[in-house]
Amino acid sequence: MSLKDYIVSYIPGLWEDTKLSPEWLDWYNSLHYISNIVTCTDYQNFIHTYSKYLPYLSVKQLQEICCESLDNNLFCGVEFAAPPLLVNHSCHILSMDIRALKRNGKQLYTVSLSCSMTTRRYPKSYTDDQLHGESSIIFKPLFYDTALQYARKHWNHILTIQPHMQKKTYKFADPLNMTRHFPTNTNILFNLFVQYDKDYNDIVDDHSAKQYEVHNNHMQIITHSRLIFRELSSGVYTDTICCHHEKICCHHGILFTTESCAMCNGSNNQEKLQPICDKLYDYIKDHETSIRIHSKIGIGQQIIADSNLLQKTKNNSY
Question: Rounded CA gap, 76 and 141, in Å?
Fold first, then answer.
């Protein structure tokens, strides 16, 4: 699987007949790498080290960030903007933190670069031109215009504005592989991030069809990339802020009852079991290889639910 095919598979259909520029691919890789925190202990060469990860900033701008961190002696680092991948009038938030330390009697500095768990979206990034979410604020971070201009220069053809949508995380777990000391902490294999075109509470209250069918009708975007979903999410996305979560059994494709899978536990009461919808099942089936690579899942671990068991649950679901 090529890098382009791997990335394009994150959101099916979003990049159909669209050519991703080399700059976009390089920036995606850099942003993914920065998300894991990059630390440079050689203060003298930090500009050279970081310039390859931050191609949209000049040497002078990097020095400005460095000086501000040193002058303010901030423990949380200096926050500044990074180019968006998909959504116009938005940005990722990076942080540079410089710390002083002594080694062999010499004063040394470490420079840490990290990607915040938030993105910033502004009114013009939404189709209704309104503020949404906790991070949708008027204040714009350092070098916001520079970051946005870089994105528009190199991949303006894929930048879009997105409507405000309800978001939800589906955590696919293996109930048969629980940690020894924390039996309720099941092995989360991977996440699927979903955006709906309707308020989630309204979906739950919709009894015009079975619940999995109602969910299926209102799912607009599905991806297994936290980085991309964080940007597409209205306002801000983090695991703690997103209040709608569901744990799903990777063997049977049903939602957990309490902290486990009823069918894995051998329960005979299957009247209230909730199966995943067709769009989620098809997404996993179509993107199995990409999901395994992204989440580092071995080939011996099942991640696609048994279709016969899933259909049986659908027949008995509400």
Answer: 15
